[in-house]
Amino acid sequence: MERFAEHRPMLYGLAYRMLGSVHDAEDVLQEAYLRWSAADRSDVAEPRRYLTRVVARLAVDALRARQPRRSPARRASAPTRPRSPAC
Predict the structure, then answer these.
(1) Which stretches within 1-87 are classed as H helix?
(2) Which of 51, 48, 13 lies closest to 34 in space, CA to CA?
(3) Exposure of 30 in the CB half-sphere (CA atoms within 13 A)
(4) What angle do CA 43, 28, 67 make, to 5 degrees?
């Protein structure tokens, strides 16, 4: 926990700048902490770099989730040519 707490202000700033919302930034940090606590720390050579990457990816995922889902475009019927007057 102490390693995460050491980097928390920087991580919060990153998440807030990416998301623009205090609530969303806190959510991302909470998820990042859960991932940090579950990670095998012997594989993490640089905690700051690892946590920065986790927070950035979670923030991008949160931004993608905000975008409305696009439904498949309906195929428009081909425009018809105006009829020429009969001579």
Answers:
(1) 2-19, 22-38, 47-66
(2) 51
(3) 7
(4) 120
CB of 54 closer than 8 Å to CB of 14: no
| Higher local confidence (pLDDT), 76 or 34 | 34
Q: Are 44 and 35 in contact (CB under 8 A)?
A: no
Count of all residues that appear for the chain in the document:
87
C-alpha 84/C-alpha 71 separation (Å) is 37
How far is the C-alpha of 45 from the C-alpha of 81, rounded, in Å?
Answer: 67
Instruction: Name the CA radius of gyration of the chain, rounded.
Output: 24
Residue-wise pLDDT for 12-53, tens only, equals 999 999 999 999 999 999 999 999 999 888 888 999 999 999
Q: What angle do CA 30, 24, 69 make, to 5 degrees?
A: 115
Tokens coding 65: 């989730």
